[in-house]
Amino acid sequence: MCGQTRPIWDFEDIGDYWKRADESKISPIIAIPTTAGTGSETGRASVIINEETGVKKIIFHPKFMPSIVILDPILTLDLPPRITAATGMDALAHNLEAFCAPGFHPMADGIALEGIRLIKNSLIEAVNNGKNIIARSEMLAAASMGSTAFQKGLGAIHSLSHPINSQFNVHHGLSNAIFMPYVLTFNKNEVENKILSACQYLNLNKNFDDFLNWVLDLRKQLKIPHKLSEIMDCSNIDLDELSLMAFEDPSTAGNPKKIDKEDLRQMYKNSISGELF
Predict the structure, then answer these.
(1) Model-level pTM?
(2) Cys staple from 143: which of 36, 110, 125, 230, with CB 3.0 to 4.6 Å?
(3) Domains of the chain
């Protein structure tokens, strides 16, 4: 933005708004991530909260794609266990939603599947033994793989998360982790075949419920709450407003099962009570 004259919101990822930018003033980017979660070092967009409206906006330009990316696990060794867990679950959400997103993209599917395997192999170890350079390396790779794969699409995990992040200052990876089983259960009929193929690759029993239980057990081992109501006061939240924000989120279009505001409202309610569908 240092070379631009228009406000940042003029470059939101809508149509060809990116053409409003003065390309000659966009400096080349070298990206060096210090967490293993978002994988933003592989992308052409940024997610920024408009503090006046309380809405997360996606700002896009092709020249946002970094010229060089340096994935150095040493830079993540001091990441605290709580943040390691939350960012790692963010990476899992990216790989999982990309893998389940509709459409034919075998390269994205393959990347996402291996990203999930790396997370299964290394996230708990990275949390429990933060100095393990191999685990940190695998988590950095998995984060980059997730954001590469989700060019195919995301889904309702992110739709539900973004309003909570912007309105209540809840960590994005943490909210993704909380919403994950509720969205998986909602999407079961549409994603079951893909989940069964993932189970085979991940050496899990070839059963949707076993995959769901792996997610639930992973969260428990990472000390991530099962309910949204465990991390914030949900007694006075406006579910209608949140559901509308979630419905209008760009991630909604990529959800494997067609979704409406009432579906999103129900998932919010379930995440507050802790009841899976």
Answers:
(1) 0.93
(2) 36
(3) 8-69 (no CATH), 73-273 (1.20.1090.10)
